[in-house]
């Protein structure tokens, strides 16, 4: 039977069936999108929760502008800024001069597509002027092969560095003590020899 031979009722039935199938496909696609959106929202919520409660400072920088995209509460507290104040800063505003030089060199390599270590040490200046030593672990995000942002985890190692310096100082003092003890021993031996010679000279004089 040709399509033209079908009755009006049959054609209407086919149209209705096609419409039903289209509606089913549209509903399935809508359900799929809804499921994906819910999964994405759940994933974002979990990420935000981890971001906020992480036992380390975390911040994200836009590499095209040097501006902060986000920062967690711990990072802001560590430097003594409110979140609003922190996000108004540029990436280089709180770095010490030496750390700024290292980070600019690192940034230049990143923009040239060269590889850089993920982990590095840096030193920052808090709002109240305190210097804080940090161990940073960074992950770079790319778009069309170009670096666009970097997410950094900042661990405060200030106390660790102080302990290392105190230990080094103690080791130096210990070495000086050993050296001084050796010198004193040699001097005592030398002095004993002199005193012995004086005693012999006295006996001979008598």
Can you describe what's shown?
The protein has 206 residues and is α+β, with helices and mostly antiparallel strands. Helices cover 59% and strands 20% of the residues. The protein has five helices and five strands. It has helices spanning 8-53, 73-79, 83-88, 97-111, 158-205, and strands spanning 57-62, 68-71, 119-125, 131-143, 146-156. The chain has a five-stranded antiparallel sheet. The longest helix is centred in the C-terminal third of the chain and has 48 residues, at 158-205. It is elongated, with a radius of gyration of 37 Å. The termini are far apart. The mean pLDDT is 81.
Task: Quickly describe the structure.
This protein has 206 residues and is an alpha+beta fold.
Give the key terms.
5 strands, alpha+beta, 5 helices, single chain
How far from one another are the termini? 153 Å
Instruction: Count the beta strands.
Output: 5
* Radius of gyration using CA atoms only: 37 Å
Mean pLDDT: 81
**In which range does the helix fraction lie?**
55-70%
The residue ranges in which pLDDT falls below 50 over 5 or more consecutive positions are none
Q: Approximately how much beta-strand content do the residues carry?
A: 15-25%
Main β sheet profile: 5 strands, antiparallel
N-to-C SSE string, H for helix and E for strand = HEEHHHEEEH
Question: What layout of secondary structure does this protein have?
Answer:
Blueprint: H1 8-53, E1 57-62, E2 68-71, H2 73-79, H3 83-88, H4 97-111, E3 119-125, E4 131-143, E5 146-156, H5 158-205
Antiparallel strand pairs: 1-2, 1-5, 3-4, 4-5
């Amino acid at each position: 039977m040709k399509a033209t031979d079908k009755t009006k009722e049959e054609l209407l039935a086919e149209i209705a069936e096609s419409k039903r199938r289209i509606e089913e496909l549209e509903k399935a696609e809508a359900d799929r999108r809804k499921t994906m959106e819910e999964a994405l929202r759940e994933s974002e919520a979990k990420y935000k929760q981890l971001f906020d409660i992480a036992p380390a400072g975390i911040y994200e920088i836009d590499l095209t502008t040097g501006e902060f995209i986000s920062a967690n509460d711990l990072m802001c507290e560590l430097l003594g800024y409110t979140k609003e104040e922190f996000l108004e800063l540029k990436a280089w505003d709180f770095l010490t001069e030496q750390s700024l030089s290292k980070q600019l060199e690192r940034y230049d390599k990143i923009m040239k597509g060269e590889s850089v270590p993920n982990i590095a040490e840096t030193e920052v200046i808090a709002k109240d002027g305190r210097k804080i030593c940090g161990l940073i672990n960074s992950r770079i995000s790319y778009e069309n092969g170009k670096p666009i942002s970097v997410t950094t985890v900042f661990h405060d190692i200030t106390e660790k560095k102080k302990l290392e310096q105190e230990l080094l100082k103690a080791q130096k003092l210990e070495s000086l003590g050993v050296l001084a003890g050796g010198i004193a021993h040699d001097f005592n031996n030398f002095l004993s020899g002199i005193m012995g010679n004086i005693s012999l000279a006295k006996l001979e004089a008598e």
